Amino acid sequence: MQRGLATAGPGLVLPREGGTVPKVTPSSPGLLLLTSFLLHVKEDHASPTRLVCDNRLIQKYILEAKDMEKRVGQCQALPVLSCPVVLPLVDFSLQQWKSKSNETKRREILCDLALLVGAATGALGQVSEECGARQLSHLYQHANSFFLLLQTFSWEAGHWELSCSPHSMEQTHITSVFLTYRQLVQGKLRFFFHDLAKVLCKQAQGGSRDPPCGAR
Prior knowledge:
The chain has 216 residues and is mainly alpha-helical. The chain is built from seven helices and four strands; from the N terminus they run E-E-H-H-H-E-H-H-H-E-H.
């Protein structure tokens, strides 16, 4: 069986087991919105404030993560992975999290997402069952979209390379990939966007008397 490579983003190449990753067309409104948003940022070079200022979007992605976790749990005869995948440990102390800079938080989440993208890719190479493969493809697309999105935020000038040494664990159960993704979106990502909103939403409002984002 040949080993291929999956790219999670510029400058980062992740190994995968066997075959190619199925090409999946984004089907959910939330994923289409995120894709459109990424294209807008790329073309317009604008500050990506919409996602962090509109709290409804991150809530949508949390619900989608929960839905994917539920759906994969309903798949029949999910195999135990013969080659374990490496997942990030995404539990965190809120007190320690608050003490970190936004750039440190961003890079930490990028490392977590890189492992998740690699885990989804590795699992896809071992799953032939349609239901499980479909949900893994959706998770791959969502995690990789967030990976690309977070690269549009940066508080440090110049070129940088992702250097990761995150806490991780090996897992052979496919459901663990979905649990980890849901915990990441519901935890670190949600709090990160909340922290960004304190800065970016105020900048976007300027001297306007409109109510704060999310207060409407």
